[in-house]
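#onboarding

Welcome to the new folks! Below is a worked example of what a typical request in this channel looks like: someone posts a single protein sequence, and someone else replies with the predicted structure as tokens. Don't worry about understanding the tokens yet, we'll cover that in week two.

Example request:
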Amino acid sequence: RQLADYDISKEQAAAFLRFHSFITSPQPEYINTWRADAKQRKWYHSHVNGVLGDVRGAFAAAHYHAARLGEIEAGVTTVLSASSFRERLANSTMGIGGTRKMDFEYQAFVLAYRRCLDYLAGALASYFKIEANSFRTFPKSIARTKAPEVATALSEAHARHVIPLAFVLAEGRKSVRHRIAHYEFVSAGCINLTPQGFFLVGGGEQLAISERSESTTLSKAIANRLDLLQSCIDDMIDTFIGAAREHDKVHP
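Example response:
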């Protein structure tokens, strides 16, 4: 496991643990019904394994690639800090390539990020016995259901995260995810050496040189992306749990 496994922390997994508690203690009636009927068990697996397996797995993948990016960036910073490039540059600036490992990890991070959201849409849509494979169009997928109050609550939660997550949800080339998946090789950024230090510039995060180097690191930009993803997952899962519980009270 030390060699081959990877998982998120207990704090990062809190919403998944709350979902597990919801579907087991006590087990909701809709779960009982699905498990008792062989024809409906596919919804049980899509719903339960979708949240606890697929979504959590993709979320862990995004964290893994972010961690790898951070390790590479820290390693580059260490090597450059030990050199005398600032003195040799004088007042000039130099841009250099050779960031393929960072590019690969960044692209994998973005794709895992969007995958996580799409898996979440599919797992929650299964509650309504609906197949959905896109978080972006999730509200349309669940618009007509027999549990409209649950669908409305989830659609409202979805709306709270569309703009913050636009870099993987926007249509066409406005989305970094879409550009990577269909159009172009999006880099993590170009290494720029300046008298002020080492900067990654451009790339999918559109990083820029600043007088404060810590404000433009790729690691910091990626950490912010992960915080937004965590917020979305927590909100969607908790909103679902609350709305589904209320629905079960009214429609036992």
